[in-house]
Design a protein that fits this description.
7 helices, 22% strand, D-amino Acid Aminotransferase, Chain A, domain 1, 208 residues, four-stranded antiparallel beta sheet
């Protein structure tokens, strides 16, 4: 059984309905959706080695299927610039990770010019639906999102980008290069395929 199927089947066999962030990203990466480099660690020594390999600055997160809304709950430390800061951040998160039966995720610190969200949900009358919109802490408040029922064509995905409020941010804007819409459309199409392939398991998922 390949990696992407084993992640889902193992979770289901244990009666779980949620994947951890690391499991989710590993699964989605196997379907061609890229993420910043990261490593799951359980000791300070492992965290130091991971940060050295990834390169500072890094982010530390509590990683557990029970750890949602990390920022609100103080389960994430960003902008860690050196080993001294890493030690303090790891010590502050380690006990929380163990309380949640998880570990600590060391991840590259990425600063983007835009923040977008893609996701998938399931509607009772439609089945799996793919979502695209503006990301960040105001995603829910602004509700600048578009939906399509899976499966999606590339044109469906491109049309979704033109439907959201604030769509001009995807274009060249104040010195920023335009978003690669074709590549982004590919990720949306892949999400739709996942929704159909795993329709008997999935609930809702999103990534930013």
């Amino acid at each position: 059984m390949d990696n992407k199927h084993s992640i889902i089947s193992e979770a289901v066999s244990k009666g779980r309905s949620v994947l951890s962030e690391y499991e989710s990203k590993t699964f989605l990466a196997s379907r061609g959706i890229p993420f910043a480099p990261d490593e799951l660690v359980e000791t300070l020594s492992e965290a130091g080695k991971a940060a050295g390999k990834i390169g500072y600055p890094v982010v530390l997160k509590v990683c557990s299927e029970r750890a949602a809304h990390k920022t609100d709950k103080g389960l994430i430390k960003t902008g860690i610039r050196d080993r001294g800061e890493l030690i303090g951040a790891f010590e502050s998160l380690f006990n929380r990770a163990k309380e949640l039966e998880g570990a600590v995720l060391v991840q590259e610190m990425v600063r983007g010019e835009r923040e977008l969200v893609i996701g998938m949900t399931r509607k009772e009358n439609f089945g799996p639906c793919v979502m695209f919109g503006l990301g960040g802490i105001f995603t829910e408040a602004l509700q600048a999102v578009s939906f399509r029922v899976a499966p999606l064509s590339e044109q469906d995905a491109l049309d979704m980008m033109d439907e959201i409020r604030g769509r001009k941010i995807l274009d060249a804007f104040r010195g920023m290069l335009p978003v690669n819409r074709e590549k982004l459309a590919g990720y949306l199409v892949s999400l739709g395929k996942i929704g159909l392939e795993y329709r008997k398991y999935a609930r809702s998922t999103s990534t930013r």
